[in-house]
Amino acid sequence: MILNAAKNMKTMHARRNPNLHVSAAAYSQLSPSITSATFLSPTVASRRGLLSASPPPSPSLPSLIPRHGKKTAPASHAWLVKRILLGACGVILLIWLIVRQMYNHHQYPGNFDDSGDEYEMVGDASLPKEACAVMVQDTKGNPKWTVSIPPYYDFPLRPAQYREICSQSMELSKQLRQDAQAQNGFAKRMLNYYTRDQYYLDVQEAEDQGLLPPSRGEEKQKGFVEPQATSDTSGMKVCDKSLTYVMETNDAGFGNTLLRLWMSYGLAMKEDRGFFIDDTRWPYGKYSTYFTPPPSSGCLQPPKSHMVPCPHNARHIVVSGATVRETFGHSFTDEFEDPTKMRVQRQSKIFALLRTGYEALFHLRPDDAKYVADRTSSIYGPIVEHGGISIGIHVRRGDKHPFEFQYQKDYIPLDRYVDVARDIYIDKIENNGGNKKRDVEKRHTSSKLVLASDDPETYDSADMGATLRAQDRIILATKKTLEAAQGKKNPWIDEITGWEGGFYRDVFFSLGQPVGNAGDMTKLDNDVVPEGAQKLRELVGRAYLLDLAVLGQADTVVCTVSSVGCRILAVMLGWESAFGKGNWRNVDGDFDWRGITW
Fold it and tell me: Where do the record's region annotations for Disordered lie (predicted)?
């Protein structure tokens, strides 16, 4: 018998009708002019009698006050019957809840996971046809759970499928632990990051026991990024353990993918796993468009049916934007944060993972790398020669708003960046880091402000007049600049779109696409991107990387921590420079650097 967690589609949920609302508090808060004047006004004929003097009681009517020595009339039996019925209903309900709780300890009930989906355990004599988590019995007859991915499924699975597998896995694992607790009286409620799930049966072990069909002779997957060439690839075996990062994401930004890629590489190296990259459905195209090949793992990629999104103790795991909470969520933070430190110092181990990935993977393609080398030499060379300082400024606008409360609907003013840069210059150059005896002549150096922004209008602002553009190889232009260069063909039709205001998700996905209005965005198929649109996306991605590459070699950086690019620049500076020497400055409120936010 095989059990798999399936969504219970037959359950019904109570839904609140927003149009029907009765509130006693609202009635009690009515003004006195409404409550008293409407119901107790002497002008209302039907209520006037309530305010007039009562006539003397009629001697023919019975008195409301019982006479001395006589018993009061017995109370009505209706209220007594109601109380008995209400008490009986309460007892029945209590008994039903107790029986249901006892029943749940011996059955597989429908449960709710963190996503709010409802599941029920479905028994079957054969494996399900879809990729899902299943419950099996090992050779010793013990209940276990594993992940079944049919061989006809392509790799990678869709993000929704990976999320569904992880939700099902949580349910099966929790159910088995609850059953163990009911039988043995003890079971862990939650597992730590590196605590092995004793009820999980790895796919390879399930195949060896005949519980899952054996994997076919797997040919090399088409979507995997070719690693650096090795001298001898013959005789290579499949990796004992591996981590594959799938670059598919619904996020239009480049930065999140870059951070997760570096973190995944650092985690793979720490856990001694082979590392692979898949760019099959990456919105920005191919990995090789931007970077040189990644380092070789020295072993072959595993069969596609062996690569699962969870649990983390699986031999071959998949990490993507869809499973970032499972891989880098609460348990990851609890494992890698240093509880003995305060503020950003708690993040040193997480920073180290990112730095490992940055050093191994951030190698731009040859022509872009040559441009960065020439550009940084021309900008920073004279500064170093004359003892000055370079201050990089990164301004992110568009659809990314600050954390600081008063600017959450707007952006950090540009003069704040300049003020912080001025303070850095005074501290490190004029005061020489506290040494005020420095020669006056040496204070007048060739120090420079180097600017990178997603908003082209930032470069032309009065506050940034003294800055130097980080790179001019690929420039995001404004509509005004494009019209001046190309000429506007039709004065009545807006045919040219620029990057005013910065980078926006919808603008990125609509590049080169037949989009006439905002409603057309929902009709776009991101799996089918025209060649012209893909070229435009590649230019945007390369511009972003060139900005980071040049700015990351400045002596200091001023930016907003709410921006992913700002956090990336801290990784490029390094831990000692960024936080030990204070060369990384955040101007977005009193917030610390964070690795991956999810």
Answer: 50-69, 212-231
Last residue of a domain, one of 157, 185, 208: 208
420/479 same-domain check = yes
Q: Which residues have C-beta within 8 Å of that of residue 145, sequence separation ≥ 6?
A: 133, 134, 135, 136, 169, 172, 173, 176, 199, 200, 201
Tell me the residue range of the domain where 247 lies.
Answer: 242-302+329-361
What is the 8-class DSSP label of residue 291? B
Query: b/e string for 414-450 if b means 16 or more Cβ within 10 A?
Result: bebbbebbeebbeebbeeeeeeeeeeeeebebebbbb
- Read off the pTM: 0.77
Query: What is the C-alpha to C-alpha distance for residues 264 and 272, in angstroms, rounded to an integer?
Result: 12
In one-letter notation, the amino acid at residue 30 is L
* pLDDT greater than 90 at residue 586: yes
**Pairing between β-strand 274-278 and β-strand 242-246 as defined by DSSP bridges:** parallel
360, pLDDT greater than 90: yes
Those residues whose C-beta lies under 8 Å from the C-beta of residue 199, and which sit 6 or more positions away, are 143, 144, 145, 172, 173, 176, 177, 180
Report DSSP letters for 355-410, one per residue: HHHHHHH--B-HHHHHHHHHHHHHHHHHHHHTT--EEEEEE--TT---SSGGGTTS
Looking at the structure, do residues 119 and 163 belong to the same domain, yes or no?
yes
What are 119's two structure tokens?
A: 């599941």
Which single residue is written with the structure tokens 């779109």?
A: 497
> Which secondary structure element, helix H or strand E, spans residue 566, and what is its range?
helix 564-573
Q: For residues 261 and 571, what is the distance between their CA atoms, to the nearest angstrom?
A: 13
Confidence label for 3 from pLDDT (cuts 50, 70 and 90): low
**First and final CA of the chain: distance in angstroms?**
38
Query: Mind listing the pLDDT tens digit for each residue in 218-243?
Result: 556 677 999 987 656 667 899 999 99
Q: How far apart are CA 574 and CA 149, in angstroms?
A: 41
